[in-house]
Amino acid sequence: MSATSTVKVKVPATTANLGSGFDCLGAALTLYNQFRFSLSTREVLQIIATGAEADRVSTDASNLVYQSFTKLYEHLGKTPPPVQIEIAMDVPLARGLGSSATAIVAGLLGANRLAGSPLSPEEVLHLAIALEGHPDNVVPALMGGCQLAASGIDRDWEICDIPWDRSVVPIVAIPNFELSTAEARRVLPNHYTRADAIFNASHLGLLLRGLETGRSDWLRSALQDRIHQPYRQALIQGYESVQSAALNAGAHGMVISGAGPTLLALADSASAEAVRSAMSSAWAGQEVDAQVKLLQIDRQGAIVE
Ligand SMILES: Nc1ncnc2c1ncn2[C@@H]1O[C@H](COP(=O)(O)OP(=O)(O)OP(=O)(O)O)[C@@H](O)[C@H]1O
Ligand SMILES: N[C@@H](CCO)C(=O)O
User: Fold this and answer.
1) pLDDT tens figures, 129-149
2) Is residue 1 part of a domain?
3) Domain that holds residue 207
4) Is 208 found in the same domain as 72?
5) Rounded distance, CA 151 to CA 136, Å?
6) Which stretches make up the GHMP kinase C-terminal domain (predicted)?
7) How far is the CA of 93 from the centre of ligand 1 (A)?
8) pLDDT in tens, 184-215
9) Ligand 2 test: best mutation among 228, 235, 262, most atoms within 8 Å of CB?
């Protein structure tokens, strides 16, 4: 048995894409899942989940936290030890807030610490990206803040910390229905026009400067996108009403959080509460139960202790 027998991991929710940053930009939010990994003397895997949606995650070997835990040991060429995993869930499942990224990041970090920390943070990050399939949730979940990931030349990934002005407040409107990432990716086209590629490249550049400065006019334009949102809006009942309500209440703009169905508005501090209330009423008017929260950017990322 290694010197450490219990590890606690806390991982933030994340909002990916932010409009024009499809599959490359994401930010960590002040909403968390917490995990405890304990080496066990019992051979049988034990997974105990608590929280609002705890009955929705599997508690057998198909659980994504355990799958990621075993992947790290496989990567080391070792057999995973018997383990008990406790999961305290606050990040809702399949809503576009990076629940799968919290599971992957926790499984890898828990296993790495129990194995005596053989992998560097960069190696864990690369494994996490490979497991999730795209970097925009797992990178901010691990590192905190707002992060841009681009495939590199000297290394697999160049990761760039994007300054986020404190005046820019994220407001998440989380409906009570799920939309899996797999389903929301199926509706996307395989090819785009040159005009759409230029549109997204220019708006992503503007978005990065808008987030850094908090300039409303830049953010207002920058949050537009032609790669994923036009194809996904129809999967989200009430999208247009909630968007109009957010903009009328003074939001800089509103986008689909990750693959949806959560909608993310960005607003300045003075308008944030009015935007929260307007989004909540708009979804109630569509007979959709939703939780609408003012959050902040988590600056720390995943914590292991
Ligand atoms: N805490 C958890 N424990 C075990 N499995 C989890 C946990 N959280 C998420 N999952 C798995 O991840 C799936 C959801 O992943 P999916 O990519 O569809 O949504 P998401 O990660 O919440 O959203 P997005 O990627 O758009 O931000 C769940 O159905 C479940 O299988
Ligand atoms: N970039 C991903 C995030 C969700 O995992 C998508 O929008 O499909």
Assistant:
1) 999 999 999 999 999 999 999
2) no
3) 168-294
4) no
5) 12
6) 209-284
7) 5
8) 999 999 999 999 999 999 999 999 999 999 99
9) 228
